[in-house]
Amino acid sequence: CFFTFSARLEDLRVKLENEGLVNISYVVVNHQGAYSQRKFHLLKESVSDYITVYQQDEQQADVWTTLNGSKDDFLIYDRCGRLVYHLGLPYSFLSFQYVEESIKIAYCESKCGNCSYTEPGIDGVCENITRSADEKLAEVELKPSGHHSHHHHGQGQGHRHRHHH
Biased composition, Basic residues: where in the chain (predicted)? Predict the structure, then answer.
C-alpha cells in the first residue's frame, strides 16, 4: 500500500511545486517494527530523491509517540518549525484535499509578520492559491447538491482541522 501513498505524495509534491510552493521539506518516517524495517528499501525506492525517508532504529524512542501521533498522521510545520497542523486518519488520506490545503495554508500564513525564511515572490503564489480556493468555494455555493444544500461540505474556512500539540 505504501506504493500508492508514495505515488500520491510525489504527485502532491510536484503539483505544489508547479504552483510555486518551493523549498518544502517532505519526510516520511518509517515504522519501527521489524516488518517495516525489512521493507525500508522498497519504501525508499518508491519515492523520489526530493522526499526523505527516515528509518527509526528499534532501540530509539518512537518518533510518533514523541510527537503524540500515529504512523499514518501528517504533521505540517511552518517555515519556522512550528507545528501548524496535525492530521490523523481520515484527514491524512492523500485522496482528500486536507493535506494539500493544510500545506498551502502553512506555507502562506504569516503569523509572525516579516520572515527571513519567506520565499521571494510568495505573495503572488499565495494570492493565486487564495483566489483559486475562493473560486472553488463559489462553485460549491452555486451548485448545491442533494438535501443538504444549506451545508457546505467541501473545502472552506470551516473545515480547517488544527490540532496544536
Answer: 145-165
Claim: this prediction has a pTM higher than 0.85? no
| 16: amino acid identity, one letter | L
Domain range spanning residue 69?
A: 1-111+118-142
Q: Are strands 83-87 and 51-55 parallel, antiparallel or unpaired?
A: unpaired
Asked if residue 156 belongs to a domain, the reply is no
Residue 157 within a domain: no
Query: How far apart are the C-alpha atoms of 51 and 11, rounded to whole Å?
Result: 11
For every one of its 165 residues, what pLDDT tens digit does the chain have, with 9 covering 90 and above?
566 788 899 999 999 999 999 989 999 998 888 888 888 888 888 889 999 999 988 888 999 899 999 888 999 998 888 899 999 999 999 999 999 999 998 888 876 655 555 555 566 678 777 666 555 545 545 555 444 433 333 333 333 344 443
* Any domain includes 106: yes
How many distinct structural domains can be found in the chain?
1
